[in-house]
Specification:
three-stranded antiparallel sheet; 9 helices; Phosphorylase Kinase, domain 1; five-stranded antiparallel sheet; Aminoglycoside 3'-phosphotransferase, Chain: A, domain 2; alpha+beta
């Protein structure tokens, strides 16, 4: 796109720079990738405005993009930030090395959980998540084309409203940590020697560690099954539990995966 309006401060910093547009991800945002910066443009909404707040709070705590400039105009938010280098966790290099991949994912998750959350400005606890899910259901924002095939219909829930009622009645126990909120493989970057950064942190905040575990485990399963590529791989996603040193909690895994169907 060449006709995209940009806030003057962002236009000044990006004018005449070459870029590519990123098509990976489910956020619906327009993402321009420059050599050392990333521009993210998306529709304004309560859940699109948190990213600047959490990125500024996380700066210096863990490797995340640094906010360069941001703005809002005509129903869109604009965020220019530094670019995280390295490879996505779903890069072929790591998919071919399952033991390394699961070890790195577990290390990245523990890095998040080790952050002191006592003054974290964003809450993503169950009450907050369910309230936001309620808004999404009421506003008709649930993407029914991007859910697991068994979630709705025969053997599943009648509709998003029925799923929301179930979630409200069946809340599991709560284990607060700094949660990424969308801990899937494209949102974690590695080098060959370590963790280089986290991206797409608009849903990050104080939340349950099992949301990270559930979404990461599902992302592993999908990447290994060939859902996002033509090649199916023989990798056991349950390696993640071993790498984390936790026993699978089927109740919490199911609750957080079903919650995510409304987002």
């Amino acid at each position: 796109m060449t006709d995209l309006w940009l806030p003057p401060e962002i236009e000044k910093k990006t004018a005449d720079l070459s870029y590519t547009e990123n098509s990976i991800g489910m956020s619906g945002a327009l993402v321009r990738i420059y050599e050392d910066m990333v521009l993210k443009v998306q529709s304004s909404a309560p859940w699109t405005k948190r990213e600047v707040t959490i990125l500024k709070w996380l700066c210096g705590k863990i490797p995340v993009p640094e906010v360069i400039a941001c703005g809002e105009q005509d129903g869109k938010t604009y965020l220019l930030m530094t670019r995280v280098k390295g490879k996505m966790a779903c890069d072929e290099f790591f998919l071919q090395r399952p033991e390394l991949l699961t070890a790195r994912l577990a290390e990245a998750m523990r890095m998040l959980w080790d952050v002191d959350i006592s003054d974290c400005p964003i809450s993503r606890d169950q009450e907050t998540e369910l309230a936001e899910a309620r808004l999404r259901v009421e506003w008709g924002l649930v993407d029914l084309d991007n859910v697991e095939p068994t979630t709705f219909g025969p053997g599943g829930f009648k509709d998003p409203e029925a799923l929301l009622h179930w979630l409200e009645r069946n809340r599991p126990s709560y284990e607060p940590v700094l949660s990424h909120g969308d801990f899937c493989l494209p949102n974690v970057f590695f080098t060959e020697t370590g963790i280089s950064g986290f991206i797409d942190l608009g849903d990050a905040g104080v939340g349950d560690r099992w949301r990270d575990i559930a979404l990461c485990h599902r992302s592993l399963r999908h990447n290994m099954s060939g859902k996002y590529a033509s090649k199916e791989r023989e990798i056991d996603a349950d390696r993640l539990f071993d790498a984390l040193g936790v026993k699978p909690d089927a109740e919490k895994l199911r609750w957080y995966l079903l919650l995510d169907e409304l987002f």
